[in-house]
């Protein structure tokens, strides 16, 4: 909606990666490379906004599991006007063309002295969490709510460029963090091709480590590995970075715990523990009641402040890879689902994948995140293969709805206008879709055809072009109220020495990704005059710059499981990508630029967007109650104190968390009592053990904030309390006010 473009200065994000840079800073530095890293909160609205990924209209945000972040690195050659590129990794379901357009517009306004950052050298990629706010994609087929501006703005954050950085590259296999969720489709690929690989998923993680060579200090690490962000289920309503966000949180905390300079900020444990004294002391600590505070007060209660190290876990060819590694089972019988159709007695909704912590989805998220983190930490510690060579990039926009493609053995073929098949509606074992559909469907019943045709009957050309996919929705031929699917897509290659990053605007299946990587590597070697060789390392950065759903192989397309039914541009989509990436790779290898570059550019549809969620209109607590007062205080345990593994819970009178997103702040804090009566933050809503939940009181209609703390092993014995922060308006025209409140004290022993 038009309101989506009214960007409050409190709604921060993506320009953080560019703030504080000047050309003179770069030109004055010596050395082959310069590196900048940065991270910023992008959690967004924690209430009422539909979460992106499962297409479940009932899955609206109602709190925070842990916060989302944007993590970025920028590399540049040290000489004046040297080549550079920026890579942004969002804890979001995918990149958005609309977000990319707006960020590039801001960059163009900020850096007027030249094309410092353009669509050519900026890559914005998503981790593919299915538990982040939606509403930021501009095509009609995707959910529209009110969640856009927090992706765009940022003020006052600087990313340092250390001089003389060193880069090391380290690959290694991650065990049991992903399995193939469409194995019957994978088996459609040629046997001789499958025989070259030990697994039907890619297990390799590639880690890029950044070190300030002058000091030896590590400043960051980015890794690429393929597994879906679907450890949190389609019924979850808490904003979460899912397994990759968890891995990043664990990695950054691990690095901080091993750094002597980052020990400050955590409370000190008691030297000796006397349980009776702790219980007695806790009994003297009473709830504060609601109090007013400043807009930025909650930022001072964050546990993680001023951290310089950035650890990002990026997505790759994730199309058919699920983190639900125990497999898919029928919820009614407990037996494995049908192998070919992923259904149970013909019902797709009964077939659901199980994560390693089943039935606890937060535990599954933690386990899969931990497996990625531990491999990254191992690669980080052992990384020795230093990168050297050029920084380079190539980019082109292409209309994928009618691309002419040369395919060996088939001659000239074409891609098609976008369309999805009935297998798309069936969903996956990560999140089953609509009743009446199954993966692998190759026919549409007459009733559904009638419904389809009443919306938009596909042209005969479209039906012929998409075969064997039966067209359920011809999204590429649907333009009301605005286009339902993207037509113009970005294809981009980034180079850092021997590391080649392929920015793809969708989800490649395992085998599709392998074919693309191998084709690009072969093209680089054949055209590079010895500059590229077998040690050239190619990674796929999935869901980057925009989103166009899936890319399956031609053989997988014939099976029409979910990934194939969601391959928008027909059976030759992968061949088109390989052809166009090879063109860019040849230019890069030969040091050429495309003198006949296309003038295509994707449309900016922001002025046409329809919003389905209004701003909160103002609210007040019940009579005699203040925001921040306790509705239900911490219930003391039977023996007077809590132990590790217990859950502590309190409910506060609160307000809708959309009045202010508390970006770089927190809605929930666990405080620990220190000497002299000082309270120190021990955990906040960016910790895995602390949940912030928003809801509405059934009797009064007032907002409630529930804080739940699962006491972790690392919690020290002592006296604690729970604190809540929030903001509110009395009316729609009122100024935003800020409040806080804390619970009774309680002892942990």
From TrEMBL:
Neutral/alkaline non-lysosomal ceramidase N-terminal domain ranges (all copies): 33-579
User: What InterPro entries does this protein's entry cite?
Assistant: Ceramidase_alk, NCDase_C_sf, NEUT/ALK_ceramidase_C, NEUT/ALK_ceramidase_N
Cofactor requirement: Zn(2+)
Q: Which GO terms describe its cellular component?
A: endoplasmic reticulum; extracellular region; Golgi apparatus; membrane
Class of the enzyme per the UniProt entry, highest EC level: hydrolase
Where is this protein localized, as stated in its record? Endoplasmic reticulum; Golgi apparatus; Secreted
Tell me how the cofactor is bound: Binds 1 zinc ion per subunit.
GO biological process, alphabetically ordered: cellular response to oxidative stress; ceramide catabolic process; long-chain fatty acid biosynthetic process; sphingosine biosynthetic process
Write down the chemical reaction(s) this protein catalyses: an N-acylsphing-4-enine + H2O = sphing-4-enine + a fatty acid
Keywords of the record, alphabetical order, are: Endoplasmic reticulum, Glycoprotein, Golgi apparatus, Hydrolase, Lipid metabolism, Metal-binding, Secreted, Signal, Sphingolipid metabolism, Zinc
Listed GO MF terms? metal ion binding; N-acylsphingosine amidohydrolase activity
Binding-site residues, Zn(2+): 128, 228, 507, 550
Q: What is its main location?
A: endoplasmic reticulum
Q: Where is the signal peptide?
A: 1-24
- PANTHER family given in the database record: CERAMIDASE (PTHR12670), NEUTRAL CERAMIDASE (PTHR12670:SF13)
The entry assigns this protein to a family as follows: Belongs to the neutral ceramidase family.
Q: What is this protein's name? A: Neutral ceramidase
Annotated organism of origin? Linum tenue
């Amino acid at each position: 909606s038009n309101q989506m473009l009214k960007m409050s200065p409190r709604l921060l994000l993506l320009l953080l990666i560019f703030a504080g840079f000047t050309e003179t800073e770069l030109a004055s530095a010596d050395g082959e490379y310069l590196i900048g890293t940065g991270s910023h909160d992008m959690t967004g609205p924690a209430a009422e906004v539909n979460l992106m990924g499962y297409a479940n209209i009932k899955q609206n945000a109602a709190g925070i599991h842990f916060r989302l972040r944007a993590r970025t690195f920028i590399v540049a050659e040290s000489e004046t006007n040297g080549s550079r590129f920026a890579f942004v990794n969002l804890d979001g379901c995918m990149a958005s063309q609309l977000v990319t357009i707006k960020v590039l517009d801001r960059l163009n306004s900020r850096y007027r002295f030249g094309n410092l950052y353009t669509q050519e050298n900026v890559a914005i990629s998503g981790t593919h969490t299915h538990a982040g706010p939606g509403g930021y994609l501009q095509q009609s087929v995707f959910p529209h709510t009110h969640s856009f501006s927090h992706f765009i703005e940022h003020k006052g954050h600087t990313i340092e460029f250390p001089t003389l950085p060193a880069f090391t590259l380290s690959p290694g296999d991650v065990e049991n963090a992903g399995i193939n969720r469409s194995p019957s489709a994978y088996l459609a690929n040629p046997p001789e091709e499958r025989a070259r690989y030990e697994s039907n998923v890619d297990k390799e993680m590639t880690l890029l480590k950044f070190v300030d060579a002058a000091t030896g200090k590590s400043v960051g690490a980015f890794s690429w590995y393929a597994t879906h962000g679907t450890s949190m289920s389609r019924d979850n309503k808490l904003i979460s970075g899912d397994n990759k966000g968890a891995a990043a949180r664990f990695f950054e905390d691990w690095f901080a715990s091993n750094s002597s300079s980052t020990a400050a900020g955590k409370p000190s444990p008691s030297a000796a523990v006397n349980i009776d004294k702790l219980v007695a002391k806790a009994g003297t600590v009473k709830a504060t009641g609601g109090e007013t505070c400043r807009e930025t007060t909650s930022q001072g209660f964050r546990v993680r402040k001023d951290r310089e190290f950035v650890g990002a876990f990026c997505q790759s060819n994730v199309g058919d890879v699920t983190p639900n590694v125990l497999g898919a089972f029928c919820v009614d019988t407990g037996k494995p689902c049908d192998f070919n159709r992923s259904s149970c007695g013909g019902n797709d909704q009964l077939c659901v994948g199980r994560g390693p912590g089943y039935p606890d989805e937060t535990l599954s998220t933690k386990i899969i995140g931990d497996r990625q983190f531990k491999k990254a930490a191992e690669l980080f510690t052992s990384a020795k293969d230093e990168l050297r060579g050029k920084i380079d990039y190539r980019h082109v926009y292409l209309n994928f709805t009618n691309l002419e493609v040369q395919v060996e053995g088939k001659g000239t073929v074409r891609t098609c206008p976008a369309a999805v098949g009935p297998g798309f509606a069936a969903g996956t074992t990560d999140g089953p879709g609509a009743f009446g559909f199954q993966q692998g469907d190759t026919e549409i019943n007459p009733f559904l055809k009638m419904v389809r045709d009443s919306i938009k009957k596909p042209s005969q050309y479209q039906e012929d072009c998409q075969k064997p996919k039966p067209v359920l929705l011809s999204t590429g031929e649907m333009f009301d109220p605005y286009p339902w699917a993207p037509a113009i897509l970005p294809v981009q290659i980034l180079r850092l020495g021997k590391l080649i990053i392929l920015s793809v605007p969708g989800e490649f299946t395992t085998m599709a990704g392998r074919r693309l990587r191998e084709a690009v590597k072969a093209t680089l070697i054949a055209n590079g005059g010895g500059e590229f060789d077998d040690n050239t390392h190619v990674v796929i950065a999935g869901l980057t710059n925009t989103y166009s759903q899936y890319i399956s192989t031609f053989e997988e397309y014939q099976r029409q499981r979910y990934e194939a039914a969601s391959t928008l541009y027909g059976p030759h989509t992968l061949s088109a990508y390989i052809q166009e990436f090879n063109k860019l790779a040849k230019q890069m290898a030969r040091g050429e630029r495309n003198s006949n570059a296309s003038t295509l550019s994707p449309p900016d549809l922001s002025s046409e967007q329809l919003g389905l969620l209004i701003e909160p209109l103002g609210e007040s607590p019940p009579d005699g109650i203040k925001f921040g007062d306790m509705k239900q205080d911490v219930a003391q345990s039977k023996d007077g104190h809590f132990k590790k593994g217990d859950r502590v819970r309190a409910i506060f009178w609160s307000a809708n968390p959309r009045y202010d997103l508390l970006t770089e702040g927190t809605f929930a804090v666990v405080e620990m009592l220190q000497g002299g009566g000082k309270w120190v933050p021990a955990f906040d809503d960016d910790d895995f053990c602390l949940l912030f939940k928003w809801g509405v009181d059934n009797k009064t209609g007032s907002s409630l904030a529930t804080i739940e703390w699962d006491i972790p092993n690392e919690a020290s014995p002592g006296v604690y309390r729970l604190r809540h922060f929030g903001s509110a308006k009395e009316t729609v025209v009122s100024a935003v006010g800020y409040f806080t409140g804390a619970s009774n004290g309680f002892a942990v022993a």
